[in-house]
Amino acid sequence: MENRNIRSALTGCFSALGLAVVMATSSCSTSDKAQELPNKLALMANEAQIDSLISLMTLEEKINMLHGSSSFTSGGVERLGIPELTMSDGPHGVRPEHGRDWSFDNAGNDSATYLPTGIALAATWNPDLGYEYGAVLGSEAKARGKDVMLGPGINIMRTPLNGRNFEYLSEDPYLVSQLVVGYIKGVQDQGIAACVKHFAANNQEIKRAEVNVEMSERALRELYLPGFKAAVEEGGVLTVMGAYNRFRGQYATHNEYLVNKILKGEWGFKGLVMSDWGAVQNTMEAALYGNDIEMGTDLLQMPNIDYSKFLMADTLLSLVKSGQVDEKLIDDKVRRILRVMYSTNMINGSRTEGALSTRAHQQTALKVAEEALVLLKNEGNLLPLNKSTVKSIAVIGANATRKQAMGGGSSQVRAPYEVTPLEGIKRVAGSGVAVTYAPGFEVTRQEKANQQLIDEAVNAAKGAEVVVYVGGWTHGYTDSWDGGAFDAEGADKPNMDLPFAQDQLLDAVLKANPRTVVVLIGGGPLDMTQWVNRTSSIVQAWYPGMEGGTAIARVLFGEVNPSGKLPVTYPKKLQDSPAHALGEYPGDKDTLNVEYREDIFVGYRYHDTYKVAPQFGFGHGLSYTTFGYSNLKAAKNADGVGVTITLKNTGKAAGAEVVQLYVKDTEAAVKRPEKELKSFSKVFLKPGESKEVSFTLPKEAFQYFDEAKMQWVLEPGNFTIMAGSSSQDIRQQAEIGL
Ligand code: BGC
């Protein structure tokens, strides 16, 4: 709020300087254009104004805009009414307020809606929800006086161990692309800039600022870049965050190939690139290779950071003064920042009001959580629980009472409330069901089984008709943001095993009461081999946000029919996962190189092609009803290949199915995956209802990236189009010659 007042005061300076033309341009025409030309940022109308503004600036003033001026701002030019740019994490809620010197100066008064994290959003397979999710973030960022929301995070889930998989979306570039566009538009339609991160190849947290990623051009183009490309070309994202790691020998945030050649060159990105916090390593490279704003340098000096010592501050100034860096490069960076300011109404124009933590926003959190939950297994239909017949439930597991909003690193959110699984179950079960609770395990660094807790859990399990076990990962060992090794920034998981000796606990609980439903919290796959075959029902609940407990309970009791699908493969064992089976992870300890030798065979592309059966395949997720697929037809049309299929709800409950279309190139000059996701549609049907579902597969759906030609090619020949309920459950297929 304070920000906005300062801004309007500063905007007045334009008139004083005789820049009436800047003030007169209507912000309305700007946003109309924005819809027509997302990738051009619709800023062309302002280009002349931006140029005239730049012509008024001294070199010192320009340089001042290119680096941090506090923890989450970059510099403005007060004399000209150019405000500071204010940023906030991201990506699933507006982060608690930091003072300029990183202190928590506003603690207690800076809560925000805590949405389910990225992996949960992706598990909905519902791009419309991506938009709603982004709209909540944009509105709340605006209410908190921010200009840039530091999200979405979209790095590909290369290994199950990555500590930030919970923030990211998927192993599949198509699914990422579909969700990222909605998210960005949702944020930016609120007049706030989104920031897609971390560009690029930041696929592990171990030594994230030191490793050098080596991968083939084909893997880069087919897997690691499409989400970013969609963010720019379809989402019209205004800002991009450069990653910490090196890529082919050069730091990603000032990487000539990634930033200049591809992002700003091939894709025509007109917005700004900011570094991740502390990611700029070299002034000359930052100047030359496209980093526009340097953030977060010298964090170790906190709270006494000297911003003039940033690599893009005094050092850059002297390089320009001595003629080693052309001032035109500086102007280009300033121009990009000003474009973002114009398109978010920071200069010239006014913002609409945002809203913080409203009931409507909390309902979005609930809706996303409900659609995100994945029913992995339901043998014997133990689920849904029936309130009128089940009289007693033992809830077991420390995650049933653990709040997660403030964990995980920079994505922490101070939620006004968080419904835990235990609270949700008690509320939804109502007074007719006796609910007991036993924690069963402790979240400690020692990870030893606590026999007393196990005994108590066993007693509770024996005394109840049904057990709901709530375990899995948590954000680390402690409540602090960087509290440990699980699902937290700055660290990868040490292995894929269920932590805190939960295998031992589950073994005892399953023996005591086989009517046990396992609910897993966490950011992705874990090794279930010790108990999966003895467990009839398993629900993957992710980090489901502030209404997570409600969503879990509503799914358990059948008030919501689960419709989530896995956005990532669940291998049986870590060694079955391609980065570990074929590739390099966490990298060579001397050279710090990480070679992505598994190449394009990430996730199901590997499991299906190399015939390594997963525990649960990509796209898997059950429902309380059943769906029949029939009548798949594929025919060439002007736009590519038109596909139709009839989907019928053949069970007794209303529900949604995600119809997934995969494509296989039957003979190809290069090795291609057994199948690749190229379209999907989430369809809601009442019992007995059927619907013809239509898709268009554009030519891109059949192409691969040819490294010799350095371009996408469509090789003539036959392709198989597969429609299924998951990558492992293909129901219909058709051949087409192209
Ligand atoms: C994270 C970013 C985050 C930034 C600012 C970095 O450590 O990698 O995702 O946006 O900090 O908090």
Describe the structure using short key phrases.
Immunoglobulin-like, binds beta-D-glucopyranose, single chain, 7-stranded mixed beta sheet, Rossmann fold, alpha/beta, 21 helices, 738 residues, 20% strand, 6-stranded mixed beta sheet
Would you kindly provide a written description of the structure presented here, covering whatever features stand out?
The protein is of the alpha/beta class and about 750 residues long. Among the domains are: about 50-85 and about 270-345, no CATH class; about 360-570, Rossmann fold; about 625-735, Sandwich (Immunoglobulin-like), CATH 2.60.40.10. The chain contains 21 helices and 26 strands. Strands 1-2-3-4-5-7-10 form a seven-stranded mixed beta sheet. Strands 11-16-15-14-12-13 form a six-stranded mixed beta sheet, with helices on both faces. Strands 9-8-6-17 form a four-stranded mixed beta sheet, with no helix packed on it. About 60% of the residues are buried. Residues about 1-40 have low confidence and may be disordered. Bound molecules: beta-D-glucopyranose. Beta-D-glucopyranose binds near residues 90, 150, 197 and 276.
